[in-house]
Design goal:
This protein has about 140 residues and is an all-alpha fold. Helix content is about 70%, strand content about 5%. A hairpin with a 6-residue loop joins strand 1 and strand 2. It is flat and about 50 Å long. About 30% of the residues are buried.
């Protein structure tokens, strides 16, 4: 299921005549506010799943960083949408998850605490970026009137 969602988000479509692939992530990103949260939410689910599979904490941190970069740049109008064509955080996180999952090793309670904290940081960063974007929009819009 994660593989299917990663493909949908990052590489479902191909630009005809090229090898350039993209998914719905840059398209969903065009929806103000909500669109920029779709990819980080999927990434949080992947990080949680990785912790349940026993993926090393450093790999989980790398997955969170991939998602943070995607979330922070995604809220920048136009640039963020263009950035999503090249930054394939969901596909990269899936590759990390598949490469580092350790069968038979159970996650400890600390692994879950670590993931919850990472997800909270990711959610706070995405929310902060959206709040700053709205604040900047209100500040600029107030001067134009």
């Amino acid at each position: 299921m994660l593989r299917r969602w990663a493909r949908i988000f990052d590489s479902q479509f191909r630009i005809p005549g090229t090898n350039i692939r993209f998914g719905i992530d840059p398209i969903i990103g065009l929806v103000p506010g909500v669109g920029d949260l779709a990819s980080p939410i999927l990434s949080m689910f992947m990080v949680w799943h990785g912790a349940r599979l026993g993926v090393p904490k450093i790999v989980l941190a790398r997955m969170v960083l991939n998602a943070l970069i995607d979330a922070v740049t995604g809220v920048i109008p136009v640039f963020g949408d263009l950035f999503d064509f090249g930054w394939k955080a969901t596909a990269w996180n899936l590759a990390l998850l598949e490469r580092h999952a350790m069968p038979g090793q159970r996650a400890t309670s600390f692994d879950y605490v670590f993931v919850i904290l990472c997800c909270a940081v990711l959610a706070a960063a995405a929310l902060l970026a959206l709040v700053l974007l709205v604040w900047l929009g209100d500040s600029i819009g107030g001067r134009l009137v």
